[in-house]
């Protein structure tokens, strides 16, 4: 972003041009109680001073830290070719795909992205992407409400807590009964799910793997949902999906997920990429954009946006969603990644992650004071029970340039002693040895017991 300072004279001229006398008058339509009145006391910097300030702040980032944290964003290997390909002008500088004649490159790669997602999930149709996995999950629930006309929604507590917060925000004020289904032994309590599900249920949302990295019994979830005509929504991980049974095989109605592992850096948590796929009969209820392939008047193949039931293209009261855009460059990145990796590459990445996760888990569970938090099977992420609050272990390990996982207690009460560890194919033998060695050292030194 360029450095563009506004002087007092600049601001005065802009206000004069739009016909207001002051900043206060400009924001007069905002209720006074909602305005931020405290002076931020931001000092005035020259361009050189500002750049030096930002560079000094950036040096505090620990870029060489070894990451064993997950929770939805993962440190997978990214082939070097990706940046080169997505930087091509037909992708990087293409206009937003409203106008097919000037954005054929973007439209084609979005079409390929949709195709890859359908192949990965074994679903019929995928859209051009959503903002992130959380909004995709919320939009899936809105779809189920619109299709079924029912007002009861069941979401497992093993679904990513951030997703659940976004869902709650989406559904607030919509006269929807939102039920948080409690977990049992780290997975969805299927007995309670069966008891809660009835003819009023619009949908059930369960993640595979779930937030703890554990595998759910999706066949039973599917049976319970479809028994009463509810829609089954699965939130899936795209890398693990390469070695797991597909949502299509579970007869899922809607599939959503976070696409960040598909070639995008962690970037301190964003930008992210939501993917969204459905059975064919639900295509007219899908949110956002859908890229299609067609032929022009001369018989030449071309790509266009199609079936856009969104508020910018039809009457707002008829729109399926007010999401008006998609993460085009992130979707391009994911499409390039999946193309480069191919079916075999994705499977190898998933298998390597799973194998290394099993190795790390066994080594950690051999350390005194550490044990499995739950017994359910996992893929590349798993919860461990720690002898002291997980937050304290994280603080200790960060000093050694190791991010050991995430603290489940941040979202789940009474789970302060649960550390969720994620292992990807990127973790080397030396990094794994260093991780477990430092954990043993902490346990053996008595530091943990004194924290």
Overview of the molecule:
- With 451 residues, the protein is of the alpha/beta class.
- The chain has two domains: 66-75 and 343-450, Alpha-Beta Complex (Aspartate Aminotransferase, domain 1); 81-337, Type I PLP-dependent aspartate aminotransferase-like (Major domain) (Aspartate Aminotransferase, domain 2).
- Helix content is 37%, strand content 15%.
- The strands form five sheets. The chain has a seven-stranded mixed β-sheet, sandwiched between helices. It has a four-stranded antiparallel β-sheet with strand order 13-14-17-16, with helices on one face.
Write the layout of secondary structure elements.
Elements: H1 8-18, H2 23-26, H3 47-58, E1 66-67, H4 81-86, H5 89-92, H6 104-121, E2 125-126, H7 133-148, E3 152-156, H8 161-171, E4 177-181, E5 183-184, E6 187-188, H9 190-196, E7 201-208, H10 218-227, E8 231-236, E9 254-258, E10 274-278, E11 291-295, E12 301-305, H11 328-365, E13 371-372, E14 381-385, H12 390-398, E15 402-403, E16 406-407, E17 418-422, H13 429-445, H14 447-450
Helix pairs in contact: 6-11, 7-8
């Amino acid at each position: 972003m360029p450095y563009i300072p506004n002087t007092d004279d600049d601001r005065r001229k802009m206000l004069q041009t739009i016909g207001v006398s002051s900043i206060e008058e400009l924001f007069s339509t905002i209720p006074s109680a909602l305005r931020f009145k405290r002076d931020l006391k931001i000092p005035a910097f020259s361009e050189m001073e500002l750049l030096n300030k930002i560079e000094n702040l950036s040096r505090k980032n620990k870029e060489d830290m070894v990451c064993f944290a997950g929770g939805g964003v993962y440190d997978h290997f990214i082939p070097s070719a990706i940046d080169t390909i997505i930087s091509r002008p037909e992708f990087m500088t293409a206009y937003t795909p409203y106008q097919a004649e000037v954005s054929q490159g973007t439209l084609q790669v979005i079409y390929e992205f949709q195709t890859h997602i359908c192949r990965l999930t074994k679903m019929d149709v995928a859209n051009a992407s959503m903002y992130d996995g959380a909004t995709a999950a919320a939009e899936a629930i809105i779809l189920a409400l619109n299709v079924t006309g029912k007002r009861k929604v069941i979401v497992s507590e093993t679904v990513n807590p951030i997703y659940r917060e976004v869902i709650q925000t989406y559904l607030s004020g919509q006269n929807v009964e939102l039920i948080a289904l409690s977990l049992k032994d780290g997975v969805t309590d299927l007995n309670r799910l069966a008891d809660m599900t009835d003819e009023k249920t619009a949908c059930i949302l369960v993640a595979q793997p779930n937030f703890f990295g554990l595998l759910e019994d999706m066949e039973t979830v599917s049976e319970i949902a479809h028994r009463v005509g509810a829609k089954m929504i699965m939130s899936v991980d795209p890398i693990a999906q390469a070695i797991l049974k597909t949502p299509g095989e579970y007869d899922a109605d809607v599939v959503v997920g976070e696409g960040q592992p598909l070639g995008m850096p962690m970037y301190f948590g964003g930008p992210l990429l939501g993917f969204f796929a459905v059975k064919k009969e639900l295509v007219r209820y899908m949110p956002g954009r859908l890229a299609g392939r067609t032929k022009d008047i001369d018989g030449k193949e071309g790509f266009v946006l199609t079936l856009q039931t969104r508020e910018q293209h039809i009457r707002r009261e008829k729109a399926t969603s007010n999401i008006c855009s998609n993460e085009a460059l992130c979707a391009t990145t994911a499409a390039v990644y999946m193309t480069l990796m191919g079916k075999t590459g994705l499977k190898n990445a998933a298998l390597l992650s799973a194998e290394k996760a099993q190795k790390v888990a066994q080594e950690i569970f051999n350390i005194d004071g550490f044990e499995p938090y739950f017994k359910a099977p996992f893929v590349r992420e798993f919860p461990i029970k720690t002898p002291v609050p997980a937050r304290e272990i994280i603080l200790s390990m960060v000093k050694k340039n190791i991010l050991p996982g995430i603290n489940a207690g941040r979202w789940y009460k009474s789970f302060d002693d649960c550390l969720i560890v994620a292992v990807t194919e990127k973790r080397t033998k030396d990094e794994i040895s260093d991780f477990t060695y430092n954990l043993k050292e902490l346990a053996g030194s008595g530091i943990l017991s004194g924290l």
